[in-house]
Fold this sequence. Notes:
By secondary structure, the protein is α/β, with parallel strands linked by helices. Strands 3, 4, 5, 6, 7 and 8 form a 6-stranded mixed sheet that branches. A two-stranded antiparallel ribbon has the order 1-2. The longest helix is centred in the first third of the chain and has 29 residues, at about 10-35. The protein contains 14 helices and 8 strands. The protein has helices at about 10-35, 155-165, 170-180, 185-200, 200-215, 255-260, 290-295, 300-320, 325-350, 355-360, 370-375, 380-400, 405-420, 425-440, and strands spanning about 130, 135-140, 215-225, 230-240, 245-250, 265-270, 285, 400. Helix 8 (about 300-320) packs antiparallel against helix 9. It has a domain at about 290-375.
Amino acid sequence: xxxxxxxxxxxxxxxxxxxxxxxxxxxxxxxxxxxxxxxxxxxxxxxxxxxxxxxxxxxxxxxxxxxxxxxxxxxxxxxxxxxxxxxxxxxxxxxxxxxxxxxxxxxxxxxxxxxxxxxxxxxxxxxxxxxxxxxxxxxxxxxxxxxxxxxxxxxxxxxxxxxxxxxxxxxxxxxxxxxxxxxxxxxxxxxxxxxxxxxxxxxxxxxxxxxxxxxxxxxxxxxxxxxxxxxxxxxxxxxxxxxxxxxxxxxxxxxxxxxxxxxxxxxxxxxxxxxxxxxxxxxxxxxxxxxxxxxxxxxxxxxxxxxxxxxxxxxxxxxxxxxxxxxxxxxxxxxxxxxxxxxxxxxxxxxxxxxxxxxxxxxxxxxxxxxxxxxxxxxxxxxxxxxxxxxxxxxxxxxxxxxxxxxxxxxxxxxxxxxxxxxxxxxxxxxxxxxxxxxx
Length: 440
């Protein structure tokens, strides 16, 4: 024994030192676990932190990852003949001799941009007219030239692409325009262009709000965003064909009342945030992804068994919905699964480490199997989380909004662009159409 040669006082002193060191290690462990919970918790999907995932192995052992079978490849199609550039060689690159023979010719095709793309300067002259019948005064329009401002439609579309598709910040957008198109713009000018485009989209944004309110199935989620040093909230409401994004100071039910109204009676897939309880006439499907991440955190033997049984219930949901069902079958399965879940939480409520998850389920017991009762409803809120992911990336890039006006601009354009993408529309064509209709 290491203590046999020590005196009683030395043993007591070493014991106290070990106790002090254990106490320090325990506090350090608690601090690290608290910090880790900010990033790895039941409310954060695994996709948000790929560095915490295990390495992904090839799906087929012995086969490297790559394009699936039947992939068309990335070789570009040859275009119709363009400018011919015949490259001649007059001397040997090795010895410099001019006695060379042409054995054959090698053909290739390249796509290139002009070395300098200069902006087109248009001096606009408009007729100012008066109707001799009703005395109305008006100015001539051609449907392609904005009535106000110094920038044309194509330039405004390019700026929106750089800002919302490429996620460029104002300073870098100005540098790109200068380097690529000899357009010397100040960041304030780029910002003014973005605001003008958002103004042109207000009518379509209002129509989008009406479509979301009328939708019978919605996926909803929210995340924080800093505005002028304070925490605001980005809300997303997604239907099968449309997406509405709004930014508000509140995370409360007043936002839900503003967008959907108290009388909304459709189906909403959401997490267990209590603000959604405001929709008393709607059918709420609670997110199983959140629940399974929460139950996965249970470390004891009862907790692991509880998690396994919840996973089995989730698999039953997926299996049931793979086949077309009658409404009677759906009602019966809803009752059966709800009763089964109620038995689980009643049994596991006697274990202390399971009580938090039991409470989480029990608050919304009737809302876990709406996806079985109503056809076409997903058991998870992944659709909304995918829709809000782009805004999370923007948050990481810009950090915060510097004005409340910036939130209005962002929510309008982000909603319209994402909706067009969901509908498989040409974003450039839609932006051009909208600008010509409202500004020209």
